[in-house]
């Protein structure tokens, strides 16, 4: 059989600020693969169904000498991220053609992974679209679930503020908090996103681009728990409106991911002292590593919440691998409305 095209999204150069398509990230159509004869060397041949575009990938586009919690990407290599794929051929025990797996895989139509690759079988008992396994039933959902349930004691009647509330992590945090009986305040970057937040039960939602965050929090606060997704001026406003003994869960700070080492200068850090606040930064992988059963409880509980319709989920689908770079870059402009996923193949 003739070789099959294997289009890929490559990381090509270290960006100083917002990456540029064609310069720091490129679409490459030069590679091919022979799906029948390619050597597996004990591994598995996978066909990509969908992959996730996540803000943290920006942190991997850095000078490799700068230490961080994930290794720097290597220029010339494909971007790698959470992917759902189907097995085409396998020489590895426990995996057979037709199985579905999730793992950190290259942004390519096909990939061959070595025998020790960390890929996890997915049975999809919830009967949801496969892409959910890189979204609400994958890393972003795990971030919301373990962050909210493990890092703070939730009490009905408390007030939580969630920034970037319509996004992948934020919308799950909002809905889990509502299920726990909390009052939820949330911000997002468009009126359409605000309307969606109200639909999923958020008590006080506002557009931070047209409203004053400080005034909105004064109206609806004070805040017992702040779920921090963005940093920058939103963090300043949250600090000014925290309740005494409140908790800030620092999940992300996307405002500064492209700030050329010149982050927004926070003015209200003094509130941490004067209000006796607790500030907890976390990485989802560390939370999962601390779980006795790994993600098992999440797989059960979140799968059921989604299957039973107790939690709504919104995807922003980009169709075609060639749109992978756009899916990623849109995150920094707020052009995604829901979880950004790239659909590469239907099955
Ligand atoms: N700690 C962890 O383990 C972990 C795991 C996953 C994600 N995260 C972090 O969680 C945050 C949310 O991630 P996600 O995957 O759910 O992304 P997302 O919310 O689906 O997409 C990113 C959103 O951030 C908002 N945004 C972009 N630039 C902004 C700016 N300058 N100021 C304010 N808002 C801005 C935009 O929404 P608007 O239209 O509302 O502005 C955009 O849609 C990110 O900071 C991410 O790095 C952390």
From TrEMBL:
Pfam families under this entry? ADH_N_2, ADH_zinc_N
Q: Which residues form the Enoyl reductase (ER) domain?
A: 22-342
- Keyword check for Oxidoreductase: yes
Sorted UniProt keywords: Oxidoreductase
The reply to whether Oxidoreductase figures as a keyword in the UniProt entry is yes
- Drop me one GO molecular function for this one: oxidoreductase activity, acting on the CH-CH group of donors, NAD or NADP as acceptor
PANTHER family assigned: PROSTAGLANDIN REDUCTASE, PROSTAGLANDIN REDUCTASE 1
Question: What is the protein's name according to its record?
Answer: Enoyl reductase (ER) domain-containing protein
Q: Please name the source species.
A: Botryobasidium botryosum (strain FD-172 SS1)
